[in-house]
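Let's sit down with a protein and look at its sequence and fold side by side. Once you have written the record down, we can walk along the chain together.
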Amino acid sequence: MKPGLVAVPDAQGHAHDPQSPFRQFVVVRAEDARMKVVEFAAFGGPEQLRLAERDDPVVGPCQVLIAIVAIGVNFSDVLMRQDRYAATPTLPAVLGSEVAGVIEAVGGEVSGFCPGDRVAAALFATGNGMGGYAELVAVDVDWVAHVPADVTFEEAAAAMVTGLTARLLLDRTSVRGKSVLITAAAGGVGSMLVQMARFDGAARIVAAAGGEAKLALARNFGADVAVDYRVEGWNEAVRAAVDGGAIDVIMESTGGDVMRDAFGLLGASGELVIYGALNLHDFDLGVPELRRMIFLNQSVTGFALAPLLNPALFRERLAAVFVAIASGGVDTFISGRFPLENAADAHAFIEARKSMGKVLLLP
């Protein structure tokens, strides 16, 4: 447990650690405690991330105060720190768009939640989209969901951005009975997409990733074909693997040459679905590609998670993700766990392309 916090015994006299799947505890902070955060005051490399102290958040009337147990780290965090994201944060900034933990306090107008509840919070949907690299966070209750007892805090934090993104991508573009190509297939969203596409009845799943370890993970999660897109001619290897056939749906998040090579594999009436920040930096389809789209009735669809969500949809689809996790149908696959104060190491781990699945910070 973090300094300044104690576990209050339950009715049976037992104290429970916050990592426990049970929720019969209330987390209490010492009156003079100040929360620890990781912030950055200048754009640049991972070394810009520094441990600091801030006053504890004041919970508003429609908010809950969460003592954070697990924090999801996303590639978008890296891009924000580098000032390469779609939005430039005001400095100094505290990154972190998804957390799981225990409610410490609730606002006067909050119903349905109480101190001690196990919850996950979608900071990315609140309009602020940040603040999770901390010990505490105050969040509008609309973007808070209960975490069931058979889902751990780590799984909950790992499933917020990646699980919801994958689930809504497949809700919007059905892959049932179709062939689907998933790029960055061993990443957070990609690994979820491979598993959920199999669950949703895709006829053939082709995974593209970089390196044998990542290809092995994609195969383990249900990919029929796994190809290293760092190897020249990888797209022709995909074509050969599908017996010269075309791909019906492409889920693409890498941009650049990978996106252009993948587009050439798309078949008649196929759909290229673009998501993720990297395509904002390098997306180039010209007149030849446009001609192909017109005469083959192809389409390109953009996807951004936060604008699609409302509180009801957020809770409904996250609950579906949690059910899939609890049943063993989806594995969040956490490849890196770092103490909060080592957030810079977590970012370096992701930037070096060493991560697979999800990376977490643990206060």
Observations:
- The two ends are 8 Å apart (CA to CA).
- Residues 311-326 form the longest helix (16 residues).
